């Protein structure tokens, strides 16, 4: 490795290098979800409790509201119950059921002491899911190593991508977000010579955004010149700023890994910040953190891979806001 020069947040090379650059908390294996078995779905339910006796003069709506409160406090609601709430037309508790089969839903409601007279089941509801934002500078993981998200983009067919450093995507496959929810797989890598790569976003739970952690929304990608102020966002050191000192620099990271066409700055970075967004205060995305020297305690030199080369190479359009 060249003296005073290194890549941030990479696992390539000797095992000792990987151990030095990847925090122990980040190398834990990703837990594998346990599939729901047919036996679990069809397991016998406990004997239903007696149905509540309506109070004298209690209306159907009041009974349905009590049923909702009872259902709201249950911690064992099956996944086939997609949602529930008061139906303004009938005054009953409307329960949305995934699919057409109401057997599991009906059995559960009876076991919970819900009076069927207070409920209307609405079938063929879709399964609900959480949504997450893809944000520049946020952590992205392979399960054994961590880098940072650069920008999001899409191709002419509308397929979505995350762009980050190529030394991150090289040799890696499945990528997870900051919350360990899968994003997608590496689709292309350009490293060395260049330092960028593309991850196909195949999990619809992730929303492409123009956000940058700690910084402005991405408005475009107009290139900044020498002397311009730029900032970078990364999952290790957050949002740090500096000045562009030189363009079109060739950098030797050692072991034959030479990258050309990089921009030199004095914005600090540390391991794990690789691939994070470089952006101007006016919201013009510049590129992705590649590597450099020093740290955020003593300062140093950090290089970034210009964005426009990656967009052009892969035929992508930047997500802006």
Overview of the molecule:
The chain folds into two domains: 59-125, GMP Synthetase, Chain A, domain 3; 132-318, Thrombin, subunit H. It has six helices and 20 strands. The strands form five sheets. A six-stranded antiparallel β-barrel has the order 14-15-16-19-18-17. The longest helix has 13 residues, at 60-72. By secondary structure, the chain is mostly beta strands. 14% of the residues lie in helices and 35% in strands. Strand 6 (139-141) and strand 7 (146-148) form a beta hairpin. 38% of the residues are buried.
The topology string of helices and strands comes to: EHHHEEHEEEEEEHEEEEEEEEEEHE
Q: Compute the gyration radius: what is it? A: 26 Å
Distance between the termini: 39 Å
Bin the strand percentage: 35-45%
CATH class of the largest domain: Mainly Beta
Structural class of the secondary structure composition?
A: mainly beta
Instruction: Look at the structure and give the mean pLDDT.
Output: 87
Strand order of the largest sheet: 14-15-16-19-18-17
Q: What is the H level of CATH, i.e. the homologous superfamily of the largest domain?
A: Trypsin-like serine proteases
**CATH architectural name of the largest domain:** Beta Barrel
Secondary structure: helix percent = 10-25%
Low-confidence stretches: 1-5, 10-41
Strand segment tally: 20
What is the fold named in CATH at topology level of the largest domain? Thrombin, subunit H
């Amino acid at each position: 490795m060249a003296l005073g020069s290194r890549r941030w947040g990479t696992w390539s090379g000797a095992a000792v290098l990987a151990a030095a650059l990847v925090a122990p908390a980040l190398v834990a294996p990703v837990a594998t979800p346990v599939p729901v078995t047919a036996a679990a779905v069809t397991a016998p339910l406990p004997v239903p409790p007696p149905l509540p006796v309506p109070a004298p003069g209690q209306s159907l709506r009041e009974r349905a509201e009590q049923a909702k409160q009872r259902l709201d406090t249950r911690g064992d609601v099956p996944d086939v119950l997609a949602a529930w709430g008061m139906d303004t037309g009938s005054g009953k508790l409307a329960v949305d059921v995934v699919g057409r089969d109401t057997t599991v839903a009906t059995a559960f409601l009876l076991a919970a002491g819900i009076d069927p007279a207070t409920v209307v089941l609405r079938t063929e509801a879709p399964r609900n899911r959480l949504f997450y934002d893809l944000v520049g500078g946020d952590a992205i993981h392979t399960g054994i190593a961590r880098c940072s998200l650069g920008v999001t983009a899409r191709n002419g067919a509308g397929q979505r991508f995350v762009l980050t450093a190529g030394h991150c995507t090289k040799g890696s496959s499945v990528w997870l977000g900051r919350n360990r929810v899968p994003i997608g797989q590496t689709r292309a890598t350009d490293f060395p010579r260049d330092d960028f790569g593309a991850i196909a976003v195949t999990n619809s739970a992730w929303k492409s955004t123009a956000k940058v952690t700690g910084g402005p929304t991405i408005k475009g990608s107009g290139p900044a010149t020498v002397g311009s102020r730029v900032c970078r966002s990364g999952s290790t050191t957050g949002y740090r700023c500096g000045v562009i000192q030189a363009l079109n620099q060739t950098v030797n990271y050692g072991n034959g890994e030479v990258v050309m066409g990089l921009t030199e700055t004095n914005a600090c970075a540390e391991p794990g910040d690789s691939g994070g967004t470089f952006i101007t205060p006016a919201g013009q995305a510049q590129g992705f953190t590649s590597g450099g020297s020093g740290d955020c305690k003593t300062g140093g030199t950090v290089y970034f891979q210009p964005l426009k080369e990656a967009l052009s190479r892969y035929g992508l359009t930047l997500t802006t806001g």
